[in-house]
Design a protein that fits this description.
Blueprint (H helix, E strand, L loop, with lengths): L1 H18 L11 H5 L4 E7 L2 E8 L6 H14 L15 E8 L3 E2 L11 E7 L2 E5 L1 H7 L3 H11 L13 E10 L1
Helix pairs in contact: 1-3
């Protein structure tokens, strides 16, 4: 999809222009992409390893603006990693995941591995795992649920609690 390539190129340009201390040269979005809004995550990889990942589950901003902001945040503000350096641009892989609407689920039979990501909120904590994560690690549905709990800093079985907010969502991935 051309719009996906534009989002990836936009994210990469946001990072490259910041690292090279120059004005950005963003690609021109299509009329459809120019008006599209929603949630989006930017994941950065080097040598097959995660180098940063930040996003918003939803956003009133245009997708292209969210891609710019989340790319910069993933490169320079992800607290799990040091800020990206210019030398890392050469083999940086950018992945954009555009999120669909959240829908409530109650357990492993309510979502599909590889198609859906998970979001959990409980006890003042929240966590999200994108659809591709379960595939990358070969997780079954119950393991995926336990891992999203872990990501939120919760016990692995928290998803079983009736007080938890548990959602799935579709994600379209662009590289």
């Amino acid at each position: 999809m051309a719009d996906g390539r534009v989002l990836v190129a936009t994210a990469l340009e946001a990072i490259a222009s910041a690292l090279e201390s120059r004005p950005p040269r963003y690609p021109e979005p299509s009329p459809t992409l120019s008006s599209a809004r929603g949630g989006l995550f930017v994941s950065l990889h080097r040598g097959g390893s995660l180098r940063g990942c930040i996003g918003h589950m939803s956003s009133p901003s245009l997708l292209v603006e969210t891609a710019k902001a989340m790319a910069s945040a993933a490169a320079f503000e992800d607290p799990r990693f040091e800020a990206l350096e210019r030398a890392e641009l050469i083999d940086l892989e950018v992945e954009i995941t555009v999120l669909g609407e959240l829908f409530a689920i109650s357990g492993p039979g309510d979502f599909e591995i590889g198609r859906h990501g998970l979001f959990i909120a409980a006890r003042g904590r929240s966590g999200v795992l994108l659809p591709q994560v379960a595939v990358e690690y070969g997780w079954e549905p119950e393991t995926f649920l336990a891992q999203v709990c872990h990501k939120a800093g919760l016990e692995p079985s928290t998803w079983r609690s009736p007080a938890v907010e548990l959602y799935a969502f579709e994600g379209t991935v662009f590289r």
